[in-house]
Give the backbone structure.
Amino acid sequence: MTEPLIFELSQPGRRGVALPPLDVPEAEPLPAEFRREELPLPELSELDVVRHFVRLSQRNFAIDSVFYPLGSCTMKYNPKVHEEVARLRGFQQIHPLQPVETVQGALAVMFHLQRALAEISGLPAVSLQPAAGAQGELTGILMVRAWLRDRGEDERTVVLVPESAHGTNPATAAMAGFTVKAVRADRNGNVDLEHLRALLGPDVAAMMLTQPSTLGLFDPNIEEIARVVHAAGALLYGDGANLNAILGKVKPGDCGFDVIHINLHKTFTTPHGGGGPGAGPVCATAALAPYLPAPIVVQQGDRYAFHAPERTIGKVRAFYGHFGMFVRAYAYICGLGAEGLREVAEHAVLNANYLRCRLRDVYELPFDRICMHEVVFSGNRQKQECGVRTLDIAKRLIDYGFHPPTIYFPLVVEEALMIEPTETESRETLDRFIAAMRTIADEARTNPELLKHAPTTTPVGRLDEALAARRPDLRWQPHREAAERTPPGSAH
Ligand SMILES: Cc1ncc(COP(=O)(O)O)c(C=O)c1O
């Protein structure tokens, strides 16, 4: 039976609030031109409203309720103590236009976070400003562009990007006005060094590289890659969104990266997804430090102040960045300490390899080698032998109570199933997930139709995702007949 929507529960005269008698003069209502005569607001009791919103919240898949192995997104548990710290009055109630003297504590958090990220990345200069990973990438590439212009190297118009890269990498390079050329992967999933050497020339500005890559693989040739890129007069940009895997183990600066961004929301925890919030600080070498976006926080004696680097590319967003996330990230780093951060990387890698070893006999593993924080399988076998697609496997996982992994990415793997368990999941959870994945592989053989119609246990069944994206139907319309409304399971 279809659940009634909140407007349909409305009963004339029912109230959810009891206001005290008016003890101030009655105000004139809004002028008529600003009012709608017909405004069919639902009339409900408080209980109706509470049930409605709790029911909606329970339909969400969230890291606080289910295992969420969405590859490349690092949906790990966000400790609640960070929320408490970010909500401390002194942090929560300050205003970005307050005089700097009155927000010294906030500046101290930003300064020490900059220092911690410099230590972790091995790159000395840090700006916290960018609002997300993608914006951090754009910031870094604009810094590269400004650096090249100052050197009179305007002829460097090409940015090299491995074919397995996250889509934001080529998009960033194109937005910054560069031409993008793809670098092939070799048969082990690493950068094809021969192809890279062939592409490098006097027109190349930079290479953008994700380490470990979106295939979940650590490229062991990283020092050689940095060497040949630098020898060609170009810079090496690091997409540090996968830093979770190497925290405290490998410093990108030591590998030869000139500038990287870090996804605070992924690596250093903040509830994210569905578009926000994010923070993508940029860490750079001393040579690129003058180009960082302004302002950065500096220490002057026992005070903290904002500073604009001399060749700054300017501001990339309003004010100073997503301050609440800085507090969470700093709390996370201080809470774990150096040893704890190393353990994060160890457990993230251990968990991904546990899944790799326990599922490789049922799902094809395109790169059968030790992986980092995520493992990329392929649903090719199930497609060829049973006519079931990766999409069907992912949808069936919902019936077993798991958020699906990332699918059809990276593009270099056919029918890709990209699983990132993260370090915060227990062995028991991983075992339940493995059992579900193995059962689904059996079902693909014995009852492929079941998978093709999954999920079968959710309030809304299989969506036509293209139609849902192109013609979203998001608004309840009061006068539309119930029969006209799309029934669950159909294409809206
Ligand atoms: C490898 C990689 N690069 C870049 C990004 C972009 O980060 P954001 O979504 O914060 O813009 C992501 C996002 O998860 C990513 O996984």
In short: The CA atoms of residues 60 and 278 lie 20 Å apart. Residues 72-73, 132-134, 166, 168, 210, 214, 239, 241-242, 263, 278, 280 surround pyridoxal-5'-phosphate (CB under 6 Å).
